[in-house]
């Protein structure tokens, strides 16, 4: 009888433990392979800002402003890192409670609860947070291209700090943090809206508010070192594999396809820009093909986890041609001074990529397929809503921030300082001691 009681008791205890064991089996476990890939991707994306974007932009300005651009990118990297740790990561990715559709809360402010053992899927949450930090770093750094050669360093620091808080973190939350655009079904695999449209529209606002460079467009302002620009473009191209393939957050087939379509679209866009320029101006240029490659990288970013090789060729080729027209014809026609074409490449390329994702995601066109019950027209409409919301919010918020900073400390150096160059005026240094 005693043995029978022990058996029944053991059976009952086992029946209670079995569901717990099943839940334990279903719980995500750390994957060494995924973690190794995401550590690598994080380093690749950080390399895109320093030294990639720094060199890409520095080569395109005049020699008297080369260090100022690199200084801005470097300082943004440091500033955004501290903001992200203090509260930016929390605003982008934590539970926002009643405001969840719009912005996260402060549950992980100061990285509370993000420890050695905490996981985000199959990777450490520390790795996820740092990977997302690299996106938060490069997004405001892209805006630098619009106001290059004329903004005060202090104004730049204030603008970027406020912009990351008020614009980047909420839009990131809308799409990737459980906000309304993600719930709506918007497809943005690696940042077409969050990064490129967001930065590009802020760049346009910055160019409009701060005004044209002294002498623009009558005075020739050629790039001072295209070697820097091409090296920077190459670093961006390589780093972008971490940007796009890393956004799968796993080392799997989707990451592999994201890497493949990134390469294909970039090549198609580089050729598209090159041939458009060749036809238009009679000669292909190094700056043109490098800019085309970046346009392709931008356009494939939102689509990279959703489309196939043939779709990526179409996206890249279209982006190369349209971004060429935007950065040359449209800018001249409208007369704004976006010094390094941040709007023409990033906003326009991001819009193209975001919208075409809604088309080339279709299985019939080689993509992963539409969600159940969603037609191509539905998805295209959702993509248009995401694009429109990012443009409207980003434009209004960026304009207000720029005007506030201008009213308090002033955005722009004076004419004499602009003539002398920002390197010596703002940093007491020169890029070249000849």
Keywords:
434 residues; mainly alpha; Ammonium transporter fold; globular
Structural class: mainly alpha
**Helical fraction:** over 70%
Question: How widely separated are the two ends?
Answer: 100 Å
Q: What is the C-alpha radius of gyration, as a whole number of Å?
A: 24 Å
pLDDT averaged residue by residue: 94
Q: Domain count, please report it.
A: 1
How many individual β-strands?
2
The strand line-up of the biggest sheet is 1-2
Overall CATH class = Mainly Alpha
- Name the CATH superfamily assignment: Ammonium transporter AmtB like domains
Topology, element by element:
Blueprint: H1 2-26, H2 32-60, H3 66-93, E1 119-120, E2 123-124, H4 125-147, H5 153-176, H6 180-184, H7 192-210, H8 226-245, H9 253-281, H10 286-300, H11 309-334, H12 342-360, H13 376-408, H14 415-420, H15 422-427
Helix pairs in contact: 2-3, 2-4, 2-8, 3-4, 3-5, 4-7, 5-7, 5-13, 7-12, 7-13, 8-9, 8-10, 9-10, 9-11, 10-11, 10-12, 11-12, 12-13
């Amino acid at each position: 009888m005693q043995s029978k009681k022990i058996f029944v008791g053991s059976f009952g205890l086992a029946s209670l433990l079995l569901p717990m064991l099943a839940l334990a089996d279903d719980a995500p476990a750390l994957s060494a392979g995924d973690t190794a890939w995401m550590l690598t991707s994080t380093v690749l994306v950080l390399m895109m800002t320093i030294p990639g974007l720094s060199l890409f932009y520095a080569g395109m300005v005049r020699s008297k402003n080369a260090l100022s651009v690199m200084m801005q990118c470097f300082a943004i990297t440091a500033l955004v890192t501290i903001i992200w740790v203090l509260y930016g990561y929390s605003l982008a990715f934590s539970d926002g409670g009643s405001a969840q559709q719009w912005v996260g809360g402060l549950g992980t402010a100061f990285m509370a609860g993000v420890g050695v053992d905490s996981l985000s899927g199959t990777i450490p949450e520390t790795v996820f947070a740092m990977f997302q930090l690299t996106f938060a770093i490069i997004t405001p750094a892209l805006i630098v291209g619009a106001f290059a050669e004329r903004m005060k360093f202090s104004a730049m620091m204030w603008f970027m700090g406020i912009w990351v808080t008020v614009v980047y973190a909420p839009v990131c939350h809308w799409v990737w943090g459980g906000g309304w655009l993600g719930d709506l079904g918007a497809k943005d695999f690696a940042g077409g809206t969050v990064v490129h449209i967001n930065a590009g529209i802020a760049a346009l606002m910055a160019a409009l508010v701060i005004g044209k460079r002294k002498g623009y467009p009558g005075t020739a302002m050629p790039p001072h070192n295209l070697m820097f620009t091409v090296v920077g473009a190459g670093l961006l191209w390589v780093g972008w594999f971490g940007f796009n393939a890393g956004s799968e957050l796993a080392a799997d087939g989707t990451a592999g396809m994201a890497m493949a379509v990134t390469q294909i679209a970039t090549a198609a866009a580089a050729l598209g820009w090159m041939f458009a320029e060749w036809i238009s101006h009679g000669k292909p240029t190094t700056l043109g093909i490098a800019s085309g490659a970046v346009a392709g990288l931008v356009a494939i970013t939102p689509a990279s986890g959703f489309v196939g090789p043939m779709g990526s060729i179409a996206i890249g080729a279209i982006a190369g041609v349209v971004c060429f027209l935007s950065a040359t014809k449209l800018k001249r026609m409208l007369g704004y001074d976006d010094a390094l074409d941040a709007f023409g490449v990033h906003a326009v390329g991001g819009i193209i990529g975001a919208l075409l994702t809604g088309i080339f995601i279709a299985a019939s066109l080689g993509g992963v397929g539409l969600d159940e019950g969603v037609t191509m027209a539905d998805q295209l409409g959702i993509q248009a809503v995401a694009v429109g919301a990012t443009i409207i919010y980003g434009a209004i918020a960026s304009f207000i921030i720029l005007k506030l900073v201008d009213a308090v400390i002033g955005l722009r150096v004076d004419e004499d300082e602009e003539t002398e160059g920002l390197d010596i005026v703002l940093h007491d240094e020169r890029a070249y001691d000849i």
